[in-house]
Design goal:
The protein has 85 residues and is mainly α. The chain has one domain: Non-ribosomal Peptide Synthetase Peptidyl Carrier Protein, Chain A (Orthogonal Bundle). Helices cover 46% and strands 0% of the residues. It has 3 helices and no strands. Helix 1 crosses helix 3. The radius of gyration is 12 Å and the shape is globular. This is Carrier domain-containing protein. InterPro entries: ACP-like_sf, PP-bd_ACP.
């Protein structure tokens, strides 16, 4: 089991989403959380702020492409790219 300091972006993002949308809501890491209706515009803003604070990144205007935030997998890829990994 990963500790919080060892947890990768995927684990951290999923934990945040599950806490916000409910533990009983099931979705795959590759599923489009917007298409599933799990995210509204206000929550999308909260998600961007969460990612910036949790991963010490700056989400620039050009990064605000919905494809970067559609799924847990896409967000992980986006974060790793921003971190240069």
């Amino acid at each position: 089991m990963e500790t919080p300091t060892q947890a990768g972006p995927r684990v951290i993002i999923r934990e945040f989403l599950q806490k916000r949308i409910g533990q009983d809501v099931q979705f795959a890491d590759t599923e489009d959380i917007f298409q599933l209706g799990l995210v509204n515009s206000l929550f999308a803003l909260e998600l961007v702020v969460f990612l910036e604070k949790s991963f010490d990144i700056a989400v620039e205007n050009e990064d605000l492409n919905l494809d970067n935030f559609r799924s847990v997998s896409n967000m992980e890829t986006f974060i790793l790219k921003k971190k240069g990994k």
